[in-house]
Amino acid sequence: MTSMTNTARHTRPRRKPVDGWRWTGRIFLVLMLIYTVVPMAWMLITSLKGGFAAMMYPPQWIPAEPTLENYIRLLDPKDTIGQDFLRYFWNSLWVSTTTTILAVFVAVPAAYAFSRFRFPGRNFLFFAVLLRNMFPAVIFLVPLFILMRWLGLVNTHGSLILTYLTFGLPLAIWLLKGFYDNIPIQLEQAARIDGATRFQAFLLIVMPLSTPGIIATAIYSFIGAWNEFIYAATFLNKNEQMTLPVGIQRFFSENTTDWPGLMAASFMMSVPVVVLFLILQKYFVRALTEGAVKH
Amino acid sequence: MAEVVLKDVVKTYGNIYAVNNVSLTVADGEFVALVGPSGCGKTTTLNLVAGLIPMSGGDVMIGDRVVTDLDPKDRDIAMVFQNYALYPNKSVYKNLAFPLQMRKLPKEEIDRKVQAAAKVLDITHLLERKPRELSGGQQQRVALGRALVRDPKVFLMDEPLSNLDAKLRVQMRSEIKRFHQDLKATIIYVTHDQLEAVTMADKMAVMNGGFLQQYDTPANVFAHPVNMFVASFVGSPAMSLIPLTAVTRGGETLLTSAEGWELPLSPANARKALSAKSDKVVLGARHSTVRLHHTKVPGSVPGKVYTVEPTGDVTFAQVFVSSAILNISLGPSVQIRPDENIFIEFDQERMHLFDGETEMALKAV
After folding, report:
1. Residue spans of alpha helices (H) in chain B
2. A69-292: which CATH number, 3.20.20.370, 1.20.120.80, 1.10.3720.10, 3.30.365.10?
3. Count of alpha carbons within 13 Å of A227, Cβ hemisphere only?
4. What is the pLDDT of residue A20?
5. C-alpha to C-alpha distance for A209 and B193, rounded to whole angstroms
6. A210 neighbourhood in chain B, CB within 8 Å
7. Which pLDDT score, from 0 to 100, does residue B68 have?
8. Do B73 and A193 touch (CB under 8 A)?
9. Could you say which residues of chain B have pLDDT below 70?
10. Please, what is the angle between helix A20-47 and helix A259-290, to 10°?
11. pLDDT tens digits, residue range B130-140?
């Protein structure tokens, strides 16, 4: 015992060397955090100010007289602005939800078919599906508008839903196909021998195993549809039809801009997306990693 | 239980015949092994019997029903897979119950059958666990239980032991054999391991390249292989095959080697050699029928030792004879070294002769 304490006293504790890389990483993360959070925070702060307070320079970081009047006005069905906002919100919700549900309904069987079946044109079709994603969405604006006009769908939500489906489906099908590729075919074979039809085997056994992928598809489709601006602005020109991204634009009027109102509306527009993401992020991460790794 | 009949079963993928006119009958209660190397069509054949893939030609009968056009669920079969294929999100109990639920049986009956099957396979204590919490052997037993619970006419098994470690494999082998004996079940068992087939099966169907090579009891397949492929496939170490040339001189038929030595043949063997299409004859000898000598003994041929593998119990040696490798087993006390020149004596009664061109076994007419 004595010898041990002697040794302990004679050894000087070494300072841990500063890990340069780790600190660089941490600083980088903090910078990214600031970069993403500050605009949201500023948006929230501005939305809590009255009209004049919003225009003050130097800007107030903490509102002297925080007010919820902007939010109240936007959500008031008796106010014209409130009516508009609620309508836009409802339109966006309708379009995004329908897009999401349809995306899942189409992507899941399509991915399964690509994964399990061999049919002529399979590889070409899959490549064509992916090819769409290699081009920026704007390229298809004019052709799609002409198509929608030909279909008589201009100024309807249907045109947007169809368009948003073409955005979201390629990634969804690719992602889900990865899932199905990784699920051993013997599971379906066992189910079919146990008394299930091909469809039952898929529905009861295989599809539940791809739930993270389905949730990722849903999140991706919803967010894509919710935030989309260019197509919504092009295909819709009636006030009643507009979605939030386009509708909010109307806060910029000829002479003045209702900044606090705009900020309040933007903030409320972000809420569903953030909430959705927070709830489902666990599945989203699982989907991206599990679907990609080959067993 | 029922018998299974395969009649001219064919499966093509484009121009490729994965299964080429396979016909065989599995008697009621028989354990038949489909053996062959990878890609020979044995798993495809099993999948055709199960109905998992559509048949290109031929018929399958289970019992007295022609099931060729029936879905797997209507064929009254059960299947055990190499990777167990247990439903991962269901407990063991639910895995066993699933086939019965699909049949819409009442709850009490399902419970009764599940408990009975669990008892037979000694997995009652695992019923509440999920498959990922079980060891390989336990998962395999659950897979067997899921098949057992259905009380099917035929059990189909696709290499069920291949994913287990060697020791567990030996143990499960005898468990499956007991399973077969206790239930008097009709079992069709696919494996690439000829030892599994030989030890477990009543009959073996050896397949290669989509064709059925030979269908007989393991003993017969071992003792009377119908061609060179079957001869070298069954038995471990494999039967040695030595290509030689038959020569008749002065009323006597001999086998000669390019190295210059000659092997006289017994009258029966001579007749076999002469029935070959050409003078190319392949000599087949199993390791236990060949004797090693250090000096030349009448009727023996020269060889050179290539490797020596002592296993403690028996010593296996590989010897170059006429530029072919010969496997030989020796007692543990025999002394030989690599590169040593020795002499090999063949047993005329137990040697095999094959036609060098057609590769078929030569029979005495």
Report:
1. 42-50, 92-102, 107-120, 136-148, 166-183, 194-200, 218-223, 228-233, 267-274
2. 1.10.3720.10
3. 14
4. 80
5. 33
6. none
7. 92
8. yes
9. 365
10. 140
11. 998 898 889 99
Tokens of A233: 């602005």
For residue A141, which phi and psi values (nearest 5 degrees)?
Answer: -60, -55
Q: Which residues touch A289 (CB under 8 Å, ≥6 apart)?
A: none
Residue A196 touches chain B, beta carbons under 8 Å = yes
Tokens 């100024």 locate to A155
The three-point CA angle B13-B17-B22 to 5° equals: 125
| Count of CB atoms situated within 10 Å of the CB of A39 | 11
Give the pairing of strands B211-216 and B4-13.
unpaired
Question: By CA distance, what is A195's nearest residue in B?
Answer: B73
Chain A residues touching residue B95 (CB < 8 angstroms):
none
| Residue B358 structure tokens | 């057609």
Place of tokens 């006419």: B153
Secondary element (H or E) of residue B305: strand B300-310
**pLDDT tens-digit readout, B228-260:** 999 999 988 899 999 999 988 888 888 888 888
Q: Which amino acid is at B167?
A: K
Q: State the pLDDT at residue B328.
A: 93
pTM: 0.78
DSSP state letter for A206:
I
Average pLDDT for consecutive 10-residue bins of chain A (295 residues)?
50 68 90 90 83 71 76 78 84 93 93 90 85 85 91 88 88 88 90 90 88 86 90 86 84 69 85 84 71 48
- Contacting residues of A for B131, CB less than 8 Å apart: none
